[in-house]
Amino acid sequence: MTVSEWLALAAALLAALAVLPGTLGILMLTNRLAVSEPGARYIYGKSVWVLVVSAILLVAAVWCAIEAGGLGSWVFRLSVLAYLGILVFGFFMHTKLMFRPVRRPKFLGADAAVAKFGPGEEVVGVLDPDGTPYAFIARLARRPHIVYQTEGEHPFIMTHCILAHSSMAYALEDRFREPQISITAALANNMVFYDKSSQCSVIQLHNRSLDGSMPLRTMPTIACSLGTWRKLYPQSKVWYRDIEWRDVFYLKLLARADVIDPGSPMVVYPLQHEKDERRPLKEQVLGVEIGGVARTYPLPVCRARRLIEDEIAGTPLLIVSDGEGDYVQVFDRRTDGRTLSFSLDPAGERLHDTETGSTWTLTGAAVEGPLQGRALAPIPHYNKIFWYVWSDFHPGTEIYGDATDRAATA
Questions:
Q1: Looking at the domain 284-409, which fold is it?
Q2: For residues 314 and 293, is the Cβ–Cβ distance under 8 A?
């Protein structure tokens, strides 16, 4: 082989090492590498220098071929074509380009959002520590996965994983105040992102860096229809974005309906444990973890009961559902130093606590009675996550309800 052939072949191989580990499709094979922090540092940082070296080698190969009097070698031509093909594939399919987080969000008022998208559009709702509501169009968040919300005193990022149907918001504070995020991979069908500023990888369902050195503060996050959200929080801002050309590749081709269809048995990435068959594979559940104790509340059970009072690790819970099970929220039942118990009024639109007789909204605000002006604190949890993902990350998780509940809601 000639010098130009060796250089061209080396350039193509280095380009493959630099580009392919971070591309969709190839990530099915390099997933474990991308999840690890050293692997993420290489793929989303140092690999660019490997790509630069490959470009230098390619230029040198072309120069040597021209000096030798031609570009006729089939090895040389195939290597150059492979190099260019890798760059094109990487441009369309690399996760750093495909899932670029939205840093400058656009918001509509709730009424304008309903007029634009319709009341049935699914949103991810987030409540900041002051109770200020924000909503994010879930369908449009599937590709970037992450949207920054930097206004006000409590900035956060909203994260949404299409494979797990899981959403969580994280406060931008401490080491995580100014993250530089890339979506790296999916571990057992849950999103993993890498923060270049802290050099930490985070699995969404862990809510912390892999080594535990950077815990993230979560904010209450739920999934419901836009119409329901506007009814509950008419003052909310609603994030949206314009459809881009990359959506053709992801929203229409890669995010196939059978992946997220609750009735489909299709699973993209292998699980960490055996499937837990106590509930249907893609049944939507509430996943709550407090003090290391994880408990599952199946959505059919929440819908059937409307009110659930429970306790996890010493924290008394109230789980409230509207009549359709569209809105389901988890609250701490304690206020003013006492633990309250609740009942639902005949119309199903208001709650009453037994201890003071105060009247409460489904969003946990007291509007009449001795506790008027108080509010129950919502508890961050995974709202309407697919059962197979939650149970895989929490093997043996407790399931609220008995055999009667399961038979009645199957």
A1: Rieske Iron-sulfur Protein (2.102.10)
A2: no
